[in-house]
Structure formats: structure tokens, C-alpha cells
């Protein structure tokens, strides 16, 4: 119908041209109209209206009305709105154009990035979680891991350090490996390798895809079994004018929680009482108690409110031949622990250029510089306890400064935390460059080839200086260290793709390729002590005492050589087949087993496209899919299969130290890949014309031939050897749904992801069990045993307080039992409490995890609330052991100890703490339910309407918040923590507290 | 044409990837060596031998020794600190096969044995100065036997491993009592036949003929082979290399100036510039809170080893050896703090001017001449009953400590002499980690523990084999009672 009007338009245009050029240049047509929901005719606010091929655009107001100047009647208006189908309408002679937008079924047409290519979402046969950059609310956040927390079903992202720029541990569908790495492979714009951590400006992200099942990951073979995170950055669009986007936010952070410690008076009377019960003289006199006041609140001294600012600037656009996306960012965050902070500068260049019809060249390049100021935290005890550890243990009766204004020293073997933060200078400067350049060539119409050259380099420059103003600094004798650590890898990859035209009923794409990637790590450090002046810091190591100079260096390399292929076959848009195959050779494995093969296959059936499927308005699309495949793991470090001689223990003869060289491991020439067999069954669904879409899937990953540091008889000279022994299994259900609950002027969209996980050790070869874990003089608290989740907490089960002497006599024999003391359960019922009575106290894997997002829009306002929850798991609150049974008497404790059992407070379940008996310290009292529901993100934004044809074409202001509240019974700072980093053993101990952030931001589009 | 020129480089890359695959995947090492790079000459063998010394010496050697050999006796207790976890079960006689320090000890010994085997297996094909080669062999033989001796002391017979070719599938069984003893005797004899009278290559800390003989004597004492114990002690005495330190206050034997006196026969040498691995960590575990160091800054650990007050009653007031104890001190505010009941500290190993934050240059003595004299005295008393030589030998040690001599008439029976000698050994060797074995030899280890109110049982004269080891090696049979 439109076509028939075309001559008329042309005539009209001609008429205008003829009647006067002047008129033409000014003869803009004002078009007004209303945009409504096609289904219920409600007005749609915030719909973008663009004049195609120009920078002119506007958005509809709260009543769905818009007004736009079109240059001519030939102009085409483009109406677009998230969740609705896009409509293009030629202006013609209309001055009023009302548009009804149908709800989009475009979800199915969405393209999803997979390994070495893209597929239509509707054609997916494997399990891929996809999040677009737009959906990720990244205000005041620095890493991909951080903004992905809770966004994808089955992806558990745990904080390892809540300091600014701190790390995360990522587990996709549970934990496969006991000894080898469990972190996923990251692929950034086709460059496989390490986690980008903080080096990537979140605004540069176009999409993040998480490949979860073998059908999707097996194409990355040797490195696929932990899942793959594919990050795609933004590219300029063809034939689009320059778009400048500037986003600024400033924020304020405060600790989400502090621990409730005893104040000075409580502390003194507590210890007086305990000492009295021990029959020892009171350490504090009544005069001292009366004179002290509240004493020092050490947490208050080391924690603060801290600012954060974030600037992101980007330029994008393109001609027919060349498209560009350029960005710069600056991020600056002070930590909530004094003297900690993080700063990042980053820049990105993404360019694509077409040479003729067949040849494209492109480059994606990212560079970032991060500066991190670190406050000492971590696992240290006694004098080595960090800022938080010392703040939680130092007596509140100790002052921060002595009478001379110097950092006060304690009689406790602890280091003044304020002094630590202010005078122990730890900083890291990380320069990270990565990128790739590629050449695409269309050899034939249906055959294309690509050469991809990639490069990744991370250079860490570390500085540590222990000023001598603190106990630790004095004991370290003013040590200063400078270190360099360099990771470099490069990639050469060649791929071809063949997708012949087989008519309407069949289509297939065949992909094949080779790759070579080499990784080089080298490091160097030097340190000295006893400097002539502390003013040098770590900047003049030669000013230290020569006899105290230390140096070290290290170098290692590894290589992966790969060949891979994938076939996607689509029959009648009903039957989808995917087969992948990868051969990987890794330098890391034994000479007998360098190369391994990783096949996978998947089928999907789009039932809703079958002729027998009843026509209906309810089910839009229904697809069943199943996949099976094998992927591998090679994250074991280098040189683990060989006989190697390395530095051995130092001999001392005549008082002089002599270095030694000795074998460092038992060789294993048969060392081979750890493989995961992964089964995935899923169903994708779209209902009600796309208003509700979702998927449900079941997975089962069986990991075999574990790369296990197998404990061996130490008569061999070694405690363990890396062997392919043992099996583990992870299985669970995942469920995703997105629902547009309300459309129209007031719209409401909900996304929910939900996942369950069952983790189990299946066997450990000949061994009945392995105990591991070591922190704070506690050992062997994590259990590996067939039938039990990996690294379940293992210890004694608390059975209450001994109420009386006869209670003790009638209970199983227990060392150092006393009235008021801790009673434990005799699990093996042998009448005595022994190490054999240790039992499983908790499971570190959540039974289920939840991500729940709601977006409400009304008249230019948008409210987003994103919750993350994890349920049914335990966390070892080792920090509480410092309150239960401190390493030394007279250390401060949490206030709950005041409720200790006494003959007059004999209903209390809290022990009397009279004896410092330690063997039972790892017990059920410190294993806590860590289930939580957290408001991770909150964002309230307002977009100003009517900015079409203005210099500023878009203006949004917003308020945002992170971690605004957490519902949990967990008593530590944060239930979402593992201070052991990416280790499979999970504990919380004197961690850096989590911050709550409030931000205000502005986004300007030019 | 265009097509060809584009495809060609692709094919080249692809071919490279295939053909040179093996070479590409060869694993190179840079910071570690491969065996083909090493064991080419005697220097290499000595560098590996260093690792055997390194395994024997470690910075907590005194602390761990005192815990496992004295906290279970009448001498030491430990209070507070994280390591109370490990001391409490030992003091209370409720230790189990899960005890971390027993495990550490076992593993350390076998690491030393393995490394000694590496030296021995690789030494044979190396050509070089035959005398030096033979000395290196004898050092390795001695060190290996000494590790077995230390294992035998705590655990009884253990698997004897004499080859460096070990495998994850090894499941060696324990040697019999006799095999174990015969092996150690043979090895110590072998070493004694080769080792020179003074430390090989003039490096203090290497074993000598005297060290091998004294270790052998200690073994004979342990198995109560009095005849051989007495004669081996005599062999050591006849070397005329050693005498008692009498040149000053008896406690100065352990001072910086005298700690390499010829009274010491074999010690674990600590570094002149001690750090966390090459110094001795004892002192920081001992001194009380607020103690003013002679050479600060030094760390005072939360853990505190203390002397049982009852033990101090064994000393006569004029005994110079009492000077090894800290009874009181003056704190930073000038107050004198008196250390009361069960709170006195053993400062037998004193401070050094050059020292790490928590590590000093105090050597840890394994074998000392006073032990040779008192062992011969004890053995002769067992063999011959009361006799003058035993009295004389005992008096040599007493004279050195400036306590009155004893005479035959002071004792009514060999048992009386024996009991007195045991007390003398306590006064002489406390904090040197041999009390447990002395008490066991005298049959008093369990009895005295019971007197202290501990639930000690007869089988506890041996420590249990670590449970981790039993779980990994089903051929190991646990000691009775555990």
C-alpha cells in the first residue's frame, strides 16, 4: 500500500524543489503523534523516535506523545522501545502519526555470542546465559564479575576481598576440581585468557555470555570445563553519526555492618569475672574501670565513610567503510578502611574497516592503569593480624596514640591497626593491555576466513614498605620491597566458516580452525631493611642494609595448540543439530598424554514449529534441547609432570647459610587432562507474544580423572603428588523467566533466575577421605569424602554447656571438661570425645541461588531493584573463634560473650569461657547459616523529555545504591565472602568489611 | 588469483600448527632444573646434601622439641597462644594420631631421609676426590640414620626406606624392632668409620666420628643395651676431642661466646644472621609479656612456655644452672614483676646481639658430652651396681655446675643412685628435649604423669603414627593402644 503512494511523494518532493530551494532548506515537517501499546492501547512513555540516517531524535512523554521535525516527507521515522518491535514509518504528507507498537517477540531473533561466532537465540542448542550491557547496572562498580553477581542462573560469584578493586571468585555450575583451578575461561572479543578483572570499563560492554554446558564450552576444549565467560565490547554502527556519551557518578560508601564489640568497661568487668572464676586475681581494679570511660572503639578508628567517583566518556559512529568505538574512563574509589583505595584509568579503541566488498580488518584494544592502595587485611594472626584483625582483637582499654603522640604499642602481640593503615604502605600498580587484530575475508559467497591475532599483557608493580612506627614495622626492620610480575600471552588463530545455501529447508554452518597460544610469566623482586631513612619508602632500596638485601626471580611458560570444528545444522527450523570437536595439546601434561580430544553434540526440537502443534495465542515458541559433551581442565600450573630440582631448605654450617637444590615433586609422566562429562537437558519457552519468556534446564556434570594433589605416604619424601585420581559430580536445575508484567505508560518487567546445585565428591581413589584447610592455628577443617559436598566443614558438634559436675560425669569423657564449659557430641558413641567425633558441620554450597530484578517505568522515570539471594549453605565464621577462644587472654571479644554461662545465668547456651582449652575450637558454634537476600542494586533514573534537535540529545539523572540492605542470620560482616580467594575451602576471617554505596549520576548524550 | 594469495598464509599457519606440534608442546623450565642438568660433580652432590641439613634444622626445633619431649614431663608447661592447641593434649596425656606436630615431625624426618637417599643414589656415579666423596656419603648415611633415630624415639620402628626411587604406589610396612635397631647400629657404625674427628671441610655443624658414636651410644641407651652403651661412651671419651665447659658459669655454655664449645658433639646450627627459617624461635615463645629485651626489637609471642615450680625444687640453691631461669624481671615502667607458681621461664638459650624479630642464633644441641658422661655412669650402674666410676662421672658434671660432689656412701642402692642421676639429668638437660626419653628409660614417664593427675596409660610411651599416614598406607600398623 505504501508503495502506491510513492509516486505521489516523489511528485510532492519535486513540487517543493521546483517552488524554491529556500523553502526546501527550511521546509521541515513537524510531525506529532502518540505511541501506544498495540495490545491494550495504553500510551507508551520513553519511546525513542528517530529520523533515520540523522542524529535527530526524541522520546515520547508520559502520555506517549511526541513532536519531531522531519527534514522532508521522504524522511523515515523509527520508533523503538525496549520490549517492543521496532517500527519504521515514512513521513509522507502526514503531520500526525500515531503508532501502535506490538510487543516484541524479538527475543527469539536476538543474536547470542558463542565460541567463535554467533547464533540466533532461537537456534541455540546449548546452555548459554546472556546479559546485555544495557541490563547491567554498573554504577560505581569496577569489574565484570562484580556487575554479573546474581545475574545468571548457576553462576555463583563470591567476593574474595571487599576492598576497592578487590577480587571475586566465579563458579559456573558448581565446583568440579579439588586441586586444579575452577575459575572459568574468559574470552574477550575472541581473545581467550585470563579474567579481565578491573581492567575493563563496564560501559564498554555490549554483552556478556556465559557458556555453561559442554555443547557450548567444548569448542574451548581443554579450558572449557569450568564454563566460559564471553565478553563482547561495543562497536560503532554503520552509517551512523557521531554519538558522544558521558556518564558521571559520585557516591558515598559506608560499612554495611560493624561487629558489636565490648566497650572498655564491659571488657574489664568481663575479664575480671572470668579471672575470678579461674581463681586468679582480677586484672582490673574498680578505679581503673571507673576511670576508663568507653575506651577505644577500634573499628570506628579504622573505618570511615568514603567517596567514589566514576567518569566514562565514549565516542562512537561510523561510515559505510569504517566504524569506531572509542572510550575513556576514570574511576576513583576510597575504601571504607582508612588508607585504602583504588583508581583506574582505561581507554579502548574498537575499529573496523572494510576494504572493498570482501575484506574487513579490525582491531579491539584495551589499556588500563590501576593504582591500588592496600590496607593490610588477610589471614595473619597475632602481630601479623591486619587492620581489621587487630581492630577486632585489641583491648578497648588500649589507646590509639601514646602520651607522646606516637602510635601506641600494646602488651598484646598485636600491631596498632591505625598505625598499620597509615604507615605500612602497600600499593600495586597494574598495567593491563589486551586486544586483538583480525582480518576477515569472504573467499566465496558462502565461505569466509579469519585470522585473529591476540595479545594480553598484565604488568604488576608492587611496593611494600613497613615504616618502623609500629610493632610489625619494627619487627620487619623497616623492610621495603619492590616487585614486578609480568604475564604475557599471545594468540594466533585461524578460522574458516562455510555456510552454503541449501534452500529453505536446510541450512548449515561449518566452522573450523587452528589456534596457538603461548603464556609467559616472569617476576622479580628485591627488598632490603634497616634503611638510613624511612623517607625513602621502597624508592631507594640501595639505602638499606646490604646484609639484609633479598632478591628473587622466576620464569615460566606454557603453550596450548588447538584444532577445532563445529557444525550447526538446521532442518526446517524444527530440528537443530550442533556438533563440536576440539583437539588440544598442552605443554603442561605428561609426555605420554599431551594431547586430548573434546567432542560434544546437541539436538534441539522446536516443537512449536511443527504442523501438529496447535495454533494458539498462548505459546509463541517452545523448544526442547539436549546436549552431551566432554570438556577439560588444565589449570594446574606449569611443570607438574616432570622430575624437577628446585630450591630446597637452607643449610646452616659454621653459622653461614647455604642454599640447596633437591627434587621438588614426584614425577608423573602420565599426567593428563581432567575431563568433565556434561549432560544438559533444557526447554526454552515464549508465551503471550513474548510477554513471558524463559527456560528451564537440568544439568549433570561428572568430572573424572581429577587433577588431584593426592596425599601419598610421606615415606616417599613427599606429602602429595599430582595424579589423575577421583571423581566429582555437580548437578542441578536452572530456571529463568522474564515477564513484562505491565506494559504501557506504567511498565513493570521482572526477571528471575533460580538455580539449585548438588555438589558431591564421588571417589578419591584408595583414600577414605582427605582433610584440608589451615588458618589461625586450626587445621584439617574441610572434608573431602565420597558422598559429601566438597570441602564440607568438619569439626565437633556443640552440645551445650556442662551444667554441673554430675553432668560431666554422666557425659562422654572429654579432656578438660569443667562446669560451664563446652560439651560436645560423642558422634561415634565410644564414650569419649576424640578426633573421631568430628563430623560434617555444614555445606559450603548453596542449595539454591536467586537473582531477582524488577524494572518499573513511568513518565521518564525508571526504577530498578535487583536482589540476589543464596540459600541453604553454611560459612565458617572463623572471626568468631577470636571471640569464642581468643589466641591470648585479655583480647577484646564480641559483646555476646557477656551472656556467658554462670551458675546464676545457667540457662545461657554461651559457654563460661573459663578454660582456654583449644582442641575443639572448630565446632558447630562457628559454622553459621549464611543464607542471605541482598538488595544488590537500586537505581532510580529520570530521563528528560523533549531534547530532540537540541545539542544535548539525551539527559538522564539517577540515584543508585549498592548493597542497601541484606537479610541474613549470619553474624560476620558479610555472608558473601571467601577470604581464601578462589580456593574451594571457604571461610570468613577478619575480612575487609563490605561497603554500602549511595551514588548520584548524570548521563549526557550528544 | 586473489583467493590463492589469501588462502596460502592460512595454510602455512595451519601446517605449522600441525607439524611442529610436539616441539611446541615440549615443556621448558627456567626456575627449576631437570635432573639431566645436575648431579655432574661433587659440588652438586653437596648442594643436595645441604637440603638434608636444612630438613633437620628448622626454626621451631626447640619449641617443638620441648612440647613433644618436655611438656609431657615434669619440666615444662605451655599457656596461651594459638599453639596451646598442640600443647594442651600433650600436657594432658590426651594426644591422638591427629596431632599436627606429630605429623609434622614424621613428615620432616622422611623428607630428610628421602633427600639423603637422593644424595646417596646420585653420588656413586660421580667421580671426584675419593676422600671427599666418601665423606659426603658418610654424612648422608649419618643424617639418614639420625632421622631414623629421631623417628624411632617417638614412634618406635618405622618403614625403612633406603632408595630415592619412590612412587605414589609405595606402601612400605614398618620394620621389626630388631631390623630397625640393627639398621641404625650398622649405619652409625658405617658413618663413624669414615667421618673425621673434626667436622668435615671444617664446617661446624657437619657430623664427626664423635657424633656418630654418641648417636649410637644414645641408641644403645634407648634400648637399654648397657654393655654397648658403656663401651660406646668410652669410645667417645677416648677420642679426647671433648670435655665439659668449666671456664665460666655453667649457663654460659649456651652463650654466644661458648655455644660452639667442644662440649657440643652434634648440634643443629643456627645462622649468624637468623631469619624466620634459619634462626631459633624459642625465646619469643618464652619471655613474659612486658619483658625488656637486651637487644630489641623482638617479638613476644602470645604463647608462653613455663617451668613447673616442682621441677625447680630439684635444684640446690648454689647450682649455677639455676641462672638459666627467669624468676623476675623489670618492666618498661620500672616495676619488678615476680613470676610465681608455674610461671618461671627457661632462658637457657640466651639473646644474641644479631637476631631476627623472633629468631636467634642459638644452636639446638642434639648431642652433648655431659650426656656421654652421664650415660656411661648410668650404664655402668646398671651393669655393675654402685661403683666409683659412675660416681666420678656424675661428679664431673656436678663440679662443672658448682654443686657439691657426691660419694659412694651417699647411696644405699643402685636404684637410689639411678634416681639421683635422673634428677641430675633433669637439671642438666632441661629445655634440650630429651626428658621424655630419660623418663621412659627409667620407667617413670607414665608413673610421674599419673602423679601429676594425668590419665596416662602405659602405651603412651610411644606416640601414635599420624592418622594421615595410616590412611594413606594401609600396610602401616598403628602402635598399640591408639
Would you write up a description of this structure?
- The complex is a heterodimer of chains A (1006) and B (482).
- Chain A folds into two domains: 2-104, Carboxypeptidase-like, regulatory domain (Immunoglobulin-like, Sandwich); 249-261 and 297-792 and 845-885 and 921-1005, Beta Barrel (Maltoporin, Chain A).
- Chain A is globular, with a radius of gyration of 32 Å.
- In chain A, 50% of the residues are buried.
- In chain A, strand 39 (770-775) and strand 40 (778-784) form a beta hairpin.
- Chain A contains twelve helices and 53 strands.
- Chain A is mainly β and 1006 residues long.
- Chain A has a 22-stranded antiparallel barrel. Chain A has a five-stranded mixed β-sheet with strand order 10-15-16-13-14.
- Chain B is mainly alpha-helical.
- Among the domains of chain B are: 39-194, Serine Threonine Protein Phosphatase 5, Tetratricopeptide repeat (Alpha Horseshoe); 276-362, no CATH class.
- Chain B is built from 17 helices and eight strands.
- Chain B has helices at 2-19, 21-25, 42-56, 61-69, 84-91, 100-123, 130-155, 177-194, 209-222, 226-238, 309-312, 369-384, 388-400, 414-429, 435-441, 445-451, 467-472; strands spanning 76-79, 264-268, 304-307, 325-326, 328-330, 336-338, 345-346, 364-368.
- In chain B, the strands form four sheets. In chain B, strands 1-3 form a two-stranded antiparallel sheet.
- In chain B, strand 5 and strand 6 (336-338) form a beta hairpin.
- The longest helix of chain B has 26 residues, at 130-155.
- Chain B is globular and about 75 Å long.
- At the A-B interface, helix 10, strand 24, strand 25, strand 26 and strand 30 of A face helix 1, helix 2, helix 3, helix 5 and helix 6 of B.
Amino acid at each position: 500500500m505504501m508503495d502506491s503512494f510513492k509516486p505521489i511523494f516523489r511528485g510532492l518532493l519535486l513540487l517543493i524543489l521546483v517552488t524554491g530551494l529556500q523553502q526546501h532548506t527550511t521546509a521541515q515537517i513537524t510531525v506529532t503523534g502518540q505511541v501506544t501499546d498495540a495490545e491494550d492501547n495504553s500510551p507508551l512513555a520513553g519511546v525513542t523516535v528517530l529520523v533515520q540516517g540523522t542524529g535527530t531524535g526524541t522520546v515520547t512523554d508520559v502520555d506517549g506523545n511526541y513532536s519531531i521535525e522531519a527534514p522532508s516527507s521522504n524522511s523515515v521515522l523509527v520508533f523503538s522501545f525496549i520490549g517492543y518491535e521496532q517500527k519504521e514509518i515514512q513521513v509522507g504528507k502526514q503531520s500526525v502519526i500515531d503508532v501502535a507498537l506490538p510487543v516484541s517477540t524479538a527475543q527469539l531473533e536476538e543474536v547470542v555470542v558463542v565460541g567463535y561466532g554467533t547464533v540466533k537465540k532461537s537456534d541455540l542448542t546449548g546452555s548459554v546465559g546472556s546479559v546485555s550491557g544495557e541490563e547491567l547496572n554498573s554504577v560505581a562498580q569496577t569489574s565484570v564479575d562484580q556487575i554479573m553477581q546474581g545475574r545468571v542462573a548457576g553462576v555463583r560469584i563470591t567476593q574474595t576481598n571487599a576492598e576497592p578493586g578487590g577480587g571475586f571468585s566465579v563458579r559456573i555450575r558448581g565446583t568440579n576440581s579439588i586441586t586444579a583451578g575452577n575459575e572459568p575461561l574468559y574470552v574477550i572479543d575472541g581473545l581467550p585468557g585470563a579474567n579481565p578483572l578491573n581492567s575493563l570499563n563496564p560501559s564498554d560492554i555490549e554483552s556478556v555470555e556465559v557458556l555453561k554446558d559442554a555443547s557450548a564450552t567444548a569448542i574451548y576444549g581443554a579450558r572449557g570445563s569450568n564454563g566460559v565467560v564471553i565478553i563482547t565490547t561495543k562497536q560503532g554502527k554503520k552509517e551512523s553519526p557521531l554519538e558522544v556519551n558521558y556518564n558521571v557518578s559520585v557516591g558515598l560508601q559506608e560499612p554495611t555492618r560493624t561487629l558489636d564489640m565490648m566497650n572498655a568497661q564491659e571488657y574489664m568487668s568481663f575479664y575480671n569475672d572470668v579471672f575470678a572464676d579461674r581463681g586468679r586475681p582480677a586484672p582490673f581494679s574498680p578505679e581503673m574501670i571507673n576511670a576508663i570511660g568507653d575506651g577505644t572503639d577500634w573499628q570506628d578508628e579504622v573505618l570511615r565513610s568514603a567517596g567514589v567517583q566514576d567518569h566514562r566518556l565514549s565516542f562512537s559512529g561510523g561510515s559505510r567503510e569504517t566504524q569506531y568505538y572509542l572510550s575513556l574512563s576514570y574511576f576513583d574509589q576510597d575504601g571504607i578502611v582508612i588508607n585504602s583505595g583504588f583508581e583506574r584509568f582505561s581507554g579502548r579503541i574498537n575499529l573496523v574497516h572494510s576494504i572493498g566488498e570482501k575484506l574487513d580488518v579490525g582491531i579491539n584494544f584495551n589499556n588500563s592503569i590501576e593504582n591500588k592502595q592496600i590496607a593490610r587485611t588477610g589471614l595473619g594472626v597475632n602481630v601479623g593480624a591486619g587492620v581489621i584483625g587487630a581492630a577486632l582483637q585489641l583491648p578497648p582499654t588500649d589507646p590509639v596514640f601514646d602520651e607522646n603522640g606516637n602510635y601506641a604499642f600494646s602488651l598484646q602481640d598485636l600491631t596498632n591497626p591505625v598505625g598499620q593503615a597509615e604507615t605500612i604502605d602497600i600499593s600495586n600498580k597494574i598495567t593491563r593491555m589486551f586486544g586483538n587484530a583480525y582480518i576477515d575475508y569472504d573467499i566465496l559467497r558462502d565461505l569466509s576466513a579469519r585470522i585473529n591475532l591476540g595479545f594480553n599483557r598484565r604488568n604488576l608493580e608492587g611496593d611494600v614498605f613497613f615504616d618502623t612506627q609500629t610493632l610489625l614495622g619494627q619487627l620487619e626492620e623497616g623492610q621495603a620491597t619492590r616487585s614486578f610480575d609480568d604475564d604475557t600471552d599471545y594468540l594466533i588463530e585461524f578460522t574458516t566458516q562455510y555456510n552454503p545455501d541449501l534452500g529453505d529447508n536446510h541450512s548449515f554452518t561449518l566452522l573450523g580452525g587452528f589456534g596457538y597460544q603461548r603464556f609467559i610469566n616472569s617476576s622479580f623482586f628485591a627488598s632490603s631493611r634497616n634503611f638510613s631513612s624511612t623517607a625513602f619508602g621502597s624508592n631507594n632500596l640501595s639505602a638499606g642494609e646490604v646484609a639484609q638485601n633479598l632478591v628473587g626471580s622466576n620464569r615460566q611458560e606454557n603453550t596450548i595448540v588447538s584444532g577445532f570444528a563445529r557444525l550447526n545444522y538446521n532442518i526446517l527450523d524444527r530440528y537443530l543439530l550442533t556438533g563440536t570437536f576440539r583437539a588440544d595439546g598442552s605443554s603442561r601434561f605428561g609426555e605420554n598424554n599431551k594431547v586430548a580430544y573434546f567432542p560434544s553434540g546437541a539436538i534441539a526440537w522446536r516443537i512449536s514449529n511443527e504442523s501438529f502443534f496447535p495454533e494458539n495465542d498462548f505459546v509463541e515458541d517452545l523448544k526442547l534441547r539436549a546436549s552431551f559433551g566432554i570438556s577439560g581442565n588444565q589449570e594446574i600450573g606449569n611443570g607438574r609432570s616432570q622430575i624437577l630440582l628446585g630450591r630446597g631448605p637452607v643449610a646452616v654450617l659454621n653459622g653461614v647459610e647455604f642454599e640447596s637444590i633437591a627434587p621438588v615433586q614426584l614425577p608423573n609422566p602420565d599426567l593428563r587432562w581432567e575431563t568433565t562429562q556434561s549432560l544438559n537437558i533444557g526447554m526454552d519457552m515464549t508465551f503471550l507474544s513474548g510477554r513471558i519468556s524463559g527456560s528451564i534446564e537440568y544439568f549433570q556434570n561428572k568430572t573424572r580423572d581429577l587433577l588431584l594433589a593426592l596425599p601419598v605416604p610421606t615415606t616417599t619424601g613427599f606429602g602429595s603428588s599430582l595424579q589423575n585420581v577421583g571423581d566429582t559430580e555437580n548437578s542441578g536445575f536452572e530456571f529463568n523467566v522474564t515477564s513484562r508484567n505491565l506494559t504501557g505508560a506504567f511498565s513493570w518487567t521482572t526477571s528471575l533466575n533460580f538455580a539449585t546445585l548438588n555438589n558431591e565428591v564421588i571417589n578419591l581413589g584408595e583414600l577414605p577421605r582427605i582433610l584440608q584447610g589451615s588458618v589461625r592455628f586450626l587445621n584439617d577443617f574441610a572434608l573431602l569424602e565420597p558422598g559429601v559436598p566438597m570441602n564440607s566443614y568438619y569439626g565437633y558438634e556443640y552440645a551445650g554447656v556442662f551444667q554441673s559436675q554430675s553432668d560431666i560425669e554422666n557425659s562422654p569423657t572429654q579432656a578438660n571438661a569443667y562446669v560451664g564449659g563446652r560439651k560436645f557430641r560423642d558422634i561415634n558413641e565410644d564414650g569419649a570425645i576424640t578426633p573421631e567425633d568430628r563430623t560434617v558441620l555444614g555445606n559450603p554450597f548453596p542449595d539454591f541461588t536467586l537473582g531477582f530484578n524488577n524494572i518499573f517505568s513511568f513518565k521518564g522515570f525508571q526504577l530498578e531493584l535487583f536482589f540476589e539471594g543464596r540459600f541453604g549453605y553454611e560459612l565458617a565464621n572463623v572471626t568468631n573463634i577470636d571471640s569464642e577462644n581468643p589466641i591470648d587472654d585479655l583480647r577484646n571479644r564480641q559483646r555476646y560473650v557477656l551472656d556467658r554461662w554462670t551458675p546464676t545465668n545457667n540457662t545461657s547456651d554461651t559457654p563460661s569461657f573459663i578454660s582456654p582449652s583449644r582442641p575443639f575450637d572448630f565446632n558447630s558454634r562457628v559454622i553459621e547459616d549464611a543464607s542471605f537476600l541482598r538488595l544488590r542494586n537500586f537505581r532510580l533514573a529520570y530521563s528528560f523529555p523533549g531534547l530532540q534537535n537540541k545539542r544535548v540529545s539525551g539527559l538522564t539523572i539517577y540515584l543508585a545504591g549498592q548493597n542497601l540492605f541484606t537479610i541474613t542470620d549470619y553474624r560476620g560482616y558479610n555472608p558473601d565472602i571467601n577470604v581464601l580467594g578462589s580456593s574451594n575451602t571457604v571461610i570468613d576471617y577478619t575480612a575487609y568489611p563490605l561497603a554500602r554505596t549511595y551514588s548520584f549520576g548524570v548521563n549526557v548524550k550528544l | 588469483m586473489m583467493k590463492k594469495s589469501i588462502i596460502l598464509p592460512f595454510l602455512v599457519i595451519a601446517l605449522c600448527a600441525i607439524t611442529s606440534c610436539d616441539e611446541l608442546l615440549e615443556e621448558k623450565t627456567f626456575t627449576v632444573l631437570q635432573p639431566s642438568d645436575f648431579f655432574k660433580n661433587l659440588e652438586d652432590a653437596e648442594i643436595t646434601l645441604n637440603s638434608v641439613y636444612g630438613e633437620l634444622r628448622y626454626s621451631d626445633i626447640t619449641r617443638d622439641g620441648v612440647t613433644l619431649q618436655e611438656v609431657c614431663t615434669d619440666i615444662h608447661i605451655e599457656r596461651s597462644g594459638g599453639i596451646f592447641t598442640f600443647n594442651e593434649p600433650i600436657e594432658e596425656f590426651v594426644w591422638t594420631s591427629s596431632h599436627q606436630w606429630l605429623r609434622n615431625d614424621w613428615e620432616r624426618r622422611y623428607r630428610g631421609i628421602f633427600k639423603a637417599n637422593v644424595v646417596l643414589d646420585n653420588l656413586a656415579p660421580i667421580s671426584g676426590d675419593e676422600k671427599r666423596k666418601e665423606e659426603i656419603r658418610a654424612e648422608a648415611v649419618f643424617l639418614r640414620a639420625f632421622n631414623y633415630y629421631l623417628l624411632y624415639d617417638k614412634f618406635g620402628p618405622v618403614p625403612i626406606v633406603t632408595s630415592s626411587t619412590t612412587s605414589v604406589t609405595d606402601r612400605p610396612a614398618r620394620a621389626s624392632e630388631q631390623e630397625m635397631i640393627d639398621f641404625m647400629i650398622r649405619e652409625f657404625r658405617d658413618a663413624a668409620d669414615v667421618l673425621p674427628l673434626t667436622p668435615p671441610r671444617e664446617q661446624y655443624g657437619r657430623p664427626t666420628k664423635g657424633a656418630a658414636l654418641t648417636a649410637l651410644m644414645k641408641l644403645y641407651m634407648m634400648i637399654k643395651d648397657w654393655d654397648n652403651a658403656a663401651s660406646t661412651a668410652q669410645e667417645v671419651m677416648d677420642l679426647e676431642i671433648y670435655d665439659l665447659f668449666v671456664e665460666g658459669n655453667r649457663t654460659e655454655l649456651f652463650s654466644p661466646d661458648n655455644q660452639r664449645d667442644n662440649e657440643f658433639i652434634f648440634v643443629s646450627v643456627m645462622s649468624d644472621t637468623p631469619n624466620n627459617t634459619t634462626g631459633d624461635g624459642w625465646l619469643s615463645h618464652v619471655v613474659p609479656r612486658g619483658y625488656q629485651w637486651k637487644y630489641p626489637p623482638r617479638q613476644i609471642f602470645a604463647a608462653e612456655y613455663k617451668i613447673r615450680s616442682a621441677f625447680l625444687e630439684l635444684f640446690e640453691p648454689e647450682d649455677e644452672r639455676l641462672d638459666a631461669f627467669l624468676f623476675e624481671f623489670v618492666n618498661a615502667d620500672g616495676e619488678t614483676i615476680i613470676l610465681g607458681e608455674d610461671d618461671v621461664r627457661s632462658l637457657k638459650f640466651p639473646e644474641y646481639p644479631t637476631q631476627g624479630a623472633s629468631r636467634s642464633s642459638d644452636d639446638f644441641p642434639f648431642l652433648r658430652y655431659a650426656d656421654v658422661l652421664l650415660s656411661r655412669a648410668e650404664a655402668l650402674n646398671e651393669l655393675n651396681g654402685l661403683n666409683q666410676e659412675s660416681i666420678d662421672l656424675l661428679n664431673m658434671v656436678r663440679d662443672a655446675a658448682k654443686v657439691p660432689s657426691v660419694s659412694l656412701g651417699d647411696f644405699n642402692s643402685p636404684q637410689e643412685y639411678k634416681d639421683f642421676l635422673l634428677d641430675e639429668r633433669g637439671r642438666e638437660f632441661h629445655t634440650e628435649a630429651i626428658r621424655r626419653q630419660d623418663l621412659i628409660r627409667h620407667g617413670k614417664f607414665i608413673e610421674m604423669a599419673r602423679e601429676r593427675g594425668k590419665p596416662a596409660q602405659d602405651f603412651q610411651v610411644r606416640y601414635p603414627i599420624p592418622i594421615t599416614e595410616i590412611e594413606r598406607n594401609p600396610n602401616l600398623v598403628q602402635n598399640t593402644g591408639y
